[in-house]
Amino acid sequence: MFYTYVLKSNSGELYIGYTHDLKRRFVEHNQGLNLSTKKYKPWVIIYYECCLNQSDAKRRERYLKTTQGGRLLKRRLKDYFYKERSKDLTS
């Protein structure tokens, strides 16, 4: 299995990636082993999808990084982002 995933940092940064070992990759992100995510840790997984083929997971990652893909993610995770925004406003 291959996974396309979305991480969110405490500062609100989103990171989209793909991997064949989601647990290992998530630990690597939170240990600061990835230069592009190191300064925004800690991360939480807010979304992931499974694919049987690496090429499908990679294609999905590229799509989610586009403007149209970002809009799809925000629609798909609408309740999550709404609750996060409400939580921030009450803090």
Characterization of this structure:
The chain is an alpha+beta fold. The chain is 47% helix and 25% strand. Strands 2-1-3 form a 3-stranded antiparallel sheet. It is globular, with a radius of gyration of 13 Å. The model has no long low-confidence stretch (mean pLDDT 93).
What quaternary form is this? single chain
Distance between the termini: 39 Å
Which strand-content bin applies to the residues?
Answer: 25-35%
Rg over C-alpha atoms, rounded to the nearest angstrom: 13 Å
Largest sheet: 3 strands, antiparallel
Query: What's the CATH topology label?
Result: GIY-YIG endonuclease
- Given helix and strand content, the structural type is alpha+beta
* Spatial order of strands in the largest sheet: 2-1-3
- Mean pLDDT over the full residue set: 93
Total domains: 1
CATH architecture identity:
3-Layer(aba) Sandwich
Stretches where pLDDT falls below 50 for ≥5 residues?
Answer: none
Helix content range? 40-55%
CATH class: Alpha Beta
**Tally of individual helices:** 4
Topology overview:
Layout: E1 2-9, E2 14-19, H1 22-30, E3 43-51, H2 54-64, H3 67-76, H4 78-90
Give short descriptive properties of this protein.
47% helix; 3-stranded antiparallel β-sheet; 25% strand; GIY-YIG endonuclease; 91 residues; alpha+beta; single chain
Task: Describe the structure concisely.
The chain has 91 residues and is of the alpha+beta class. Helix content is 47%, strand content 25%. The chain is built from 4 helices and 3 strands, in the order E-E-H-E-H-H-H.
